[in-house]
Specification:
Largest sheet of chain A: 2 strands, antiparallel
Strand content of chain C: 5-15%
Radius of gyration of chain A: 23 Å
Chains: A alpha+beta (about 100), B alpha+beta (about 475), C alpha/beta (about 475)
Shape of chain C: globular
Number of strands of chain C: 11
Oligomer: heterotrimer
Number of strands of chain A: 3
Shape of chain A: flat
Strand order of the largest sheet of chain A: 2-3
Strand order of the largest sheet of chain C: 4-6-5-10-11-9-7-8
Order of helices and strands of chain C: HHEHEHEHEHEEHEHEHHHHEHHEEH
CATH topology of the domain at 6-255 and 458-477 in chain C: Amidase signature (AS) enzymes
Number of helices of chain C: 15
Radius of gyration of chain C: 21 Å
Order of helices and strands of chain A: HHEHEE
Structural class of chain C: alpha/beta
CATH class of the domain at 5-42 in chain A: Mainly Alpha
Largest interface: A-C, 52 and 73 residues
CATH class of the domain at 6-255 and 458-477 in chain C: Alpha Beta
Largest sheet of chain C: 8 strands, mixed
Distance between the termini of chain C: 10 Å
CATH topology of the domain at 5-42 in chain A: Histone, subunit A
Helix content of chain C: 25-40%
CATH superfamily of the domain at 6-255 and 458-477 in chain C: Amidase signature (AS) domain
CATH architecture of the domain at 6-255 and 458-477 in chain C: Alpha-Beta Complex
Chain lengths: ~100, ~475, ~475
């Protein structure tokens, strides 16, 4: 699988990564190498094999419905880049 | 050209748990911004989700109520997209294996006809936060208190053919989740909202047309208006030779229009995959049986019982069971009046509902309790007051002037049933109106009403109308 | 003092030969004078360490000391530490002062271990050489022109150079075992779910597992006794009865069945590494162990499978770093898209961006089945291979890495070549099994690691098998020149 620079741009956009124009070439090459490499998987017959998402065959544990957290806004917002009136600020969202 | 409308709804019901779906933060509404967003809700590095048992119970309740299978194993997946109100950059939802499978509900239309609407599935997911668009120096503020609130997304089949059917379906689901006590149904606070998928096609064809998805409708009226507008818009496009674009649209209630939300459109590739932080949700049969045992009487069952037990019409029974609170109110009133359920039904559906609507109140905070209304209706039943006077008493009770007996006593509204007293008034009226008497006796029957009116006027409306009629007939003949 | 193992230091503290404050000061001095040429620590937390040491000494006076009270350690900078920068070696989190402690950090606090600092690592644990760190590469104390391995390269180098007696690490595809092998120390990746992932910044959630890195198996067991245990905040945490992981240290190896996977002894292994591993096999034979050839037919696909599964999970796990609530935010974003694109583009290094892109691609519409789903299916086949093998044998022995430590910059231009340096470790993560690396000798002056892989929950047996080896060999006692 060979990726073009145009495809790399699209993927980078989907992942919200600002890739510099001059780096597109190197990403196109290395990403293509990686995809070529993982395509070894194609040769394996996986007919009827159940996909494995977790290493252990366990079920989700459930917690009881009780509020256990207290207000820590000031504590959490100390590390925030931009806040006002307790809100996180971002450039204007247009809907 | 005859067009057929096809509508499917995705209803989001906020589950009324105390804590969030994956964290121990409170779900209480109206807190100061970000004071109920804990480390997990904020998506801090290294935090992990743990599922709230109560949301599973609530989802199972809903599934059983619509006759759907509860999945023995369901999977949480991540829906990946970037948005400021989505702290982790993905929403935890269910995709391929939802907790509730296919079920159905029956809706009743205004003409009494019924239709069955299929529910494709219902799945659990977390809500996002809120973007506040007031101006913060040209910036948007983000409040994540709502992030992580549990939602049950209920997806219908495209079974509805007009806006009124869609509204009837949404109302039915609304009643159901409130009966089940899994959602408070508060549409103003956004606890119950829907997205409508609307398309049109030529009558007689099977293939679905291209649909538009109208997002975030939070009232029955908006749903109806948005669909009607959207149908007109699509007809105009198609009849003008154009093509409907598949897109997300927003309803503007002020303008009564839907408009395209281009910002949400670009490159929607959600890259769903199973959330590796959560294990498969396995639901055992005994858990389902426990939930089944806890189910309340559901609206349809209640409606049929009301028809059988109280002899109500299908229409009356339908109105009275539309919400659990209304049904409970009615039953309390009816119990006070052994045997006169129709009187109770008329008052609950008439005076009471009218008064509630006027003040935009819920039945749960009616100033006249079911017990108090029962007390009032008893006084009609035992002839202490007439139905007409009862309305006056009701108004006084509504205004907080006490219970029925206190109001009747204070205002002296007790009905006059003493034959002698009524006869005395009748004699006076006859004596004072000799010409009317003569005309009546010479065959002008219509004047009977005049005499009744005069007698009632003199007694301040308190004379027993049946007795007045009877005595007048005797005296005038 | 710094030549002592954790077990020996604990004894010295118990016997009053040394105080925790003295010990902590000693290691802090070593860090100050020696880490300049290694760069194994991103943040040194001298004040907090001394405060904990004083409290530990007080606790001992009150008779409230536990087994490791007062023994200083270092944490990989992937574990959140409240009030202390937790960078994950990324510019993205260079300014991130964690508001909370990881489960592992809480446990070492409760055990009374002073934390000397946070160790360098590959950015977001993505790398096999510690060269992707925002804070610069870590040098291998055995040869400072060579890499220490990664991603827990800082932890490995610090322990090898005796800057700390023990360190925490995380292992997603070999990130504990590979650097342990390349620096001549002992490292254990526990069964998936043993150690809480709460507060351990996620790379690939279904593979990540924290574990101990120290000089001996016994020390790893002592550390694991502190680290492991159920944590209700982690849905994937195992609920099992408490266990002493050092309970089998002295068990005999007579009759022990050790599997040798044919697939791990093929081409690609350096002859020096092969020689060392064969000597280790001979040693175990002398102790009475039996060797059985086993097949892991799908293990050859573990690297390709891993490089779909891990990037897919990381592409989603790293989406939260968006410059809104914490972490790097670009200067004066002109709109929302610009905020995302530049904050993430500036905050993440090239390898992290590469993996995010691979994962984004593998999960995207039209490619999901061919990449992600296919990889998950082969993942099952790989796990089933181990299941079958463990029906025949008690443990599996293999090399930890195909070569000894490579030169800085040697593999950075070619990601696939770099990825193949984890060829012997990755399958274990896909299956979720416990495994360790321990020093087994040298090839051309550089340490060689032997890998022992156990069945699920079999850490105690693994540590016993390793300990018996270390009782009869001296490889784990060797110190790099200049760091004795």
């Amino acid at each position: 699988m060979s990726l073009s620079q145009e495809q790399v741009k699209k993927i980078a956009y989907l992942a919200r990564l600002n890739v510099q124009e001059e780096d597109l070439g190197i990403y196109a090459r290395t990403l293509s190498d990686i995809l070529d490499f993982v395509e070894q998987m194609d040769g394996v017959d996986t007919e009827g094999v159940e996909p494995m998402a977790h290493p252990l065959e366990l079920s989700q544990r459930l917690r009881s419905d009780a509020p256990t957290e207290s207000d820590q806004r000031a504590h959490f917002q100390r590390i925030a880049p931009a806040v006002e009136d307790g809100l996180y600020l971002v450039p204007k969202v247009i809907e | 050209m005859e067009w057929e409308t096809v509508i499917g709804l995705e209803i989001h019901a906020q589950l009324s748990t105390k804590s969030k779906i994956f964290s121990g933060a409170s779900t209480a509404y109206g807190a100061e911004p970000n004071t109920q967003a804990c480390a997990v809700d904020l998506g801090l590095p290294g935090v992990l989700p743990v599922l709230n048992r109560e949301v599973v119970r609530m989802a199972a309740k809903f599934g059983l109520a619509i006759g759907a299978p509860i999945a023995p194993r369901s999977i949480f997946a991540r829906k990946n997209y970037f948005y400021p109100d989505l702290p982790k950059g993905y929403q935890i939802s269910q995709y391929e294996l939802p907790v509730v499978g296919r079920g159905q509900v029956e809706i009743e239309l205004e003409d009494g006809a019924t239709r069955t609407i299929g529910v494709t599935r219902a799945h659990l997911e977390e809500d996002a936060g809120k973007s506040l668009h007031e101006d913060y120096h040209g910036m948007t503020g983000v409040d994540l208190n709502r992030a992580g609130t549990p939602l049950l997304e209920i997806v219908s089949e495209p079974d509805m053919r007009c806006a009124r059917e869609a509204v009837a379906y949404m109302k039915k689901i609304h009643a159901l989740v409130r009966y089940l006590e899994i959602c408070d149904g508060n549409m103003q606070e956004g606890s119950f909202r829907c997205d409508a998928n609307v398309s049109i096609r030529r009558k007689g064809t099977d293939k679905l047309g291209t649909r538009a998805e109208i997002k975030n409708l939070n009232s029955f009226r908006f749903l109806e208006r948005a669909i009607n507008y959207e149908v007109e818009r699509q007809i105009d496009i198609l009849e003008g030779g154009g093509a409907v674009v598949q897109e997300t649209r927003l309803f503007d209630p002020d303008k009564g229009e839907t408009r395209s939300m281009r910002s949400k459109e670009e490159a929607n590739d959600y890259r769903y995959f199973p959330d590796p932080d959560l294990l498969p949700l396995d639901i055992q049969a005994d858990f389902i049986e426990q939930v089944r045992a806890s189910l309340p009487e559901l609206p349809d069952e209640k409606k049929h019982r009301f028809m059988n037990e109280y002899g109500l019409s299908a229409y009356d029974a339908g109105v009275l069971t539309a919400s659990r609170e209304m049904a409970e109110y009615f039953e309390q009133v009816a119990a006070a009046l052994s045997g006169q359920a129709k009187l109770a039904a008329n008052w609950v559906m008439g005076e009471l509902t009218g008064a509630l609507n006027r003040e935009n109140r819920e039945i749960g905070n009616s100033p006249v309790s079911a017990k108090a209304l029962g007390g009032l209706l008893l006084r009609i039943q035992d002839n202490t007051i007439s139905g007409k006077i009862a309305k006056e008493v009701f108004e006084a009770m509504w205004a907080g002037e006490g219970d029925a007996d206190q109001v009747i006593e204070r205002k002296g509204l007790k009905q006059i049933t003493d034959t002698g007293a009524i006869e005395q008034v009748i004699d006076q009226v006859i004596a004072e109106n000799p010409s009317q008497l003569e005309q009546y006796r010479s065959g002008k029957d219509k004047l009977f009403g005049f005499f009744v009116g005069q007698v009632m006027k003199r007694t301040g409306g308190k004379a027993n109308p049946a007795q007045v009629n009877e005595l007048l007939k005797q005296k005038l003949s | 003092m710094h030549d002592k193992t954790i077990a020996e230091l604990a004894t010295a503290l118990r016997g009053g030969e040394v105080s925790s404050v003295e010990l902590t000061e000693h290691y802090l001095r070593r860090i100050e004078s020696l880490d300049g040429c290694l760069n194994s620590l991103i943040t040194v937390t001298a004040e907090q360490a001394l405060e904990t040491a004083r409290a530990a000494d007080d606790a001992r006076v009150r008779g409230e000391a536990g087994p490791l009270t007062g023994v200083p350690i270092v944490h990989k900078d992937i574990f959140c530490t409240q009030g202390v920068r937790t960078s994950c070696a990324s510019r993205m989190l260079d300014n991130f002062i964690s508001p909370y402690d990881a489960g592992v950090v809480e446990r070492f606090k409760a055990a009374g271990c002073p934390v000397l600092g946070k160790t360098n690592m590959d950015e977001f644990a993505m790398g096999s050489s510690n060269e992707t760190s925002f804070y610069g590469p870590v040098n291998n104390p055995w040869d400072t022109e060579r890499v220490p391995g990664g991603s827990s390269g800082g932890s490995a180098a610090a322990v090898a150079a005796r800057l700390a007696p023990g360190a925490t690490g995380t292992d997603t595809g070999g990130s504990i075992r590979q650097p342990a092998a390349l620096t001549g120390i002992t490292g254990l990746k526990p069964t998936y779910g043993r150690v809480s992932r709460w507060g351990m910044i996620a790379f690939a959630s279904s593979l990540d597992q924290g574990g101990p890195m120290a000089r001996t198996a016994e020390d790893c067991g002592l550390m694991l006794n502190v680290m492991a245990g159920f944590d209700a905040r982690d849905s994937t945490s195992l609920e099992r009865p408490a266990e002493d992981f050092n309970a089998c240290l002295n068990s005999t190896l007579r009759g022990l069945k050790i599997g040798l996977p044919r697939e791990f002894f093929g081409e690609g292994m350096d002859p020096g590494v092969a020689r060392v591993i064969n000597e280790a096999i001979d040693f175990y034979r002398k102790l009475g162990a039996e060797f059985v050839d086993v097949d892991l037919p799908h293990s050859g696909l573990s690297v390709p499978v891993y490089y779909v599964v891990a990037p897919a999970e990381c592409s989603s796990n790293l989406a939260r770093f968006d410059g809104v609530r914490y972490g790097h935010r670009c200067e004066a974003p002109k709109d929302l898209m610009d905020l995302y694109m530049r904050s993430r583009g500036e905050g993440f290094g090239a390898e992290v961006q590469r993996r995010i892109m691979v994962g984004t691609y593998a999960l995207s519409a039209g490619y999901f089945d061919a990449y992600y789903l296919k990889a998950q299916k082969i993942r099952r086949l790989i796990a089933d291979d181990f299941r079958n093998a463990f029906e025949q044998v008690d443990v599996i022995l293999a090399p930890a890495t195909p070569t000894t430590a490579f030169r800085l910059g040697e593999k950075t231009a070619d990601p696939v070549t770099m990825y193949l340096s984890d060829i012997y470790t990755i399958a274990v993560n896909l299956a979720g099994l416990p495994a360790m690396s321990l020093p087994a000798g040298f090839a051309e002056g550089l340490p060689v690691g032997m890998q022992l892989i156990g069945n699920y929950f079999d850490e105690a047996r693994l540590l016993g098998v390793a300990h018996q080896y270390q009782m009869g060999t001296e490889w784990h006692q060797m110190a790099p020149a200049g760091f004795e």
